[in-house]
Design a protein that fits this description.
This protein is mostly helical. The chain contains six helices and no strands.
């Protein structure tokens, strides 16, 4: 049981690092766009909402694909499960909610960084 808990913790850590890395790359690639948006009157909440919405869209695509693939592969793991149905809706929903919360937390730091972009730097770039 401890071994499974350790592997689950490592999986969540990898998910956080991966999501944070992708969102950081997204923010760094569009830094000038965010600066222009702020220069044209966007408030930091608008920029944060833009970055967070993209992160949630990507997360939802990943969750839906993951659920569909896991439902398709339940025949392979059904022999190893004891006391749990392979298509247990509580387990699927708990994992989906956990991954969405992890994505929100991991995307918060890059979204916060996107709100700190200096508009003058973006205007000089163009």
């Amino acid at each position: 049981m401890r071994c499974l808990a350790i592997f689950a913790g490592v999986a969540v850590l990898l998910a956080v690092v991966g999501i944070c890395g992708v969102m950081s790359y997204f923010v760094s690639e569009r830094r000038h766009e965010f600066g222009l948006r702020v220069a044209l009157g966007a408030v930091p909440a608008d920029v944060m909402r833009l970055v967070t919405t993209l992160g949630l869209k990507l997360t939802m695509i990943g969750v839906v694909l993951g659920v569909l693939l896991s439902l398709g592969l339940t025949r392979l793991i059904s022999d190893f499960l004891v006391g749990v149905k392979p298509t247990d809706p509580l387990t699927y929903s708990a994992v989906a909610v956990l991954l969405i919360l992890v994505a929100l937390v991991a995307g918060y730091i890059p979204a916060l960084r996107a709100t700190k972009v200096d508009p003058m730097v973006a205007l000089r770039y163009e």
